[in-house]
Amino acid sequence: MEKVIASKSIKVNEEGYLTDFSQWDKTIGHEIATEKGIEMTDRHWEVIDYLQGKHKKEEALSIRGIKKSGVFNVKEFYALFPGGPLKVSTMIAGIPKPKSCI
Amino acid sequence: MPTAAKKMLFILSKATIENVYAAFIMANGARMEGIESEIFFTFFGLEAIQKKKLEHLHVATVGNPAMHMPTLLGGLPEMEALATRMMKKEMEKLDIPPVGEFLEILSDSGVKLWGCKLAVDMFHLKKEDLIDDLDGIITVGDFYARADTDNTHMLFV
Q1: What domain range is A59 assigned to?
Q2: Which one of B32, B94, B95 has the shortest CB-CB distance to A87?
Q3: How far is residue B84's CA from residue B33's CA, in Å, rounded to a whole number?
């Protein structure tokens, strides 16, 4: 399905995750974050960069991976993206929601 | 559809790996969905938060029909250790953390970890025997009081 985000028509799935990463840019991420009640700071973008890097390398995301990332820790991750950090941050990053149970 | 669950309260009463991990994965999974979660460690569940014991939990090979081995065989020396090693290897492949690391993740994720006062007294444990991340040693009544919001669910593991 299509959704207008930042005045562009973007392909998303029924949960609102982008299905075509090439359509992503920072304004899109910014608007999804605002919708989720998150005000993006440089630190938020560092996390988004990290997640997108993992996605490009096709490495699965997990909470343990976050702990070992060396970029940020679990506590900070929850503070930056309240209400389910991996779910929310991957949506902002324009990448699929992780399928893992951990 | 977003979940209606607001808070999950787990009671962990066993120390076998399969039970401990079931509680941990469910508690962590709740936080990942934006649901509050807490664990009350009671009876043998206390082994999972004892500094000296938490990395030495075992799979039950006796009295566990899912092991598909005769009970007599399951009781042989080293059988439990072997089954435990095999299971830990499989868990590592799926990036499931060891117990100590998992407890750190749970605490950092905002899962409240409670020791059961009665069981702590019964096993003659001291606060120092238990992990530093423990949020406190509380009574059953205190734990029920944690169910302070609608759509709270309580699960016995």
Answers
A1: 2-93
A2: B32
A3: 30
Helix, strand or coil for residue A25?
coil
ipTM: 0.91
Interface contact flag, A64 B96, Cβ < 8 Å: yes
Q: Do A67 and B104 touch (CB under 8 A)?
A: yes
Partner residue facing A102 (CB), from B25, B34, B108: B25
| Fold annotation for B7-156 | Hypothetical Protein Ychn; Chain: A, (3.40.1260)
* Predicted confidence pLDDT, tens digits, chain B (157 residues): 788 999 999 999 999 999 999 999 999 999 999 999 999 999 999 999 999 999 999 998 888 888 888 888 888 888 889 999 999 999 988 889 999 999 999 999 999 999 999 999 999 999 999 999 999 999 999 999 999 999 999 999 9
Give how many domains chain A has, as a whole number. Answer: 1
Angle at A44 between CA A23 and CA B32, to 5 degrees: 90
Which contacts qualify for B124-129: CB closer than 8 Å, 24 or more apart? B125/B46, B125/B50, B129/B50, B129/B51, B129/B52
Nearest CA in chain A to B98: A64
Residue A61's closest chain B neighbor by CA?
Answer: B95
In this complex, the residue of B32, B95, B108 whose CB is nearest that of residue A65 is: B95
CB B67 within 8 A of CB B61: yes
Q: List residues of A whose CB lies inside 8 A of any B CB.
A: 60, 62-65, 67, 73-75, 78, 82-87, 100-102
